[in-house]
Amino acid sequence: MMTHSEKQEIIDLEQKFWRAMVDKDVEGSVAMLAEESIVAGAQGTALLRHDDYRGMARQGESHWQLKSFQFDDVKVMFPSKDVAVIAYTVTEEMEVEGEALTLKAADATTWIRDDGSWLAALHTESVLGDPFGRDRIRAS
Fold first, then answer.
1. Count of domains observed in the chain
2. Where is the signal peptide, in residue numbers (predicted)?
């Protein structure tokens, strides 16, 4: 059974990772990642090593910037003592190619405890909307 402080530790870690993205602190983000991690989202899936993440983060800097974020409906579970899973909805205030954008998504991260430190091993993001994508279909 997880304690409130254990649950809060995972929430704090997740927020710290997001703040690192807002602050463009690539090395701060890398320090929170497992040596190999997986990301899955609208662009597909990727297996990232630390240098891959650095390259992806630096490449993205010219196209988008996260300005702020807000978590809601946060859920945390511990399938084992060294694995934590957090899921939440997030509202992201961004600038994408010079345009302001608000994005709402459902995200989840799996954290693993390695040598006493929690590291992110898997992160997923699903843009909220119609589950069949009908809200994104455009008539031709």
1. 1
2. none
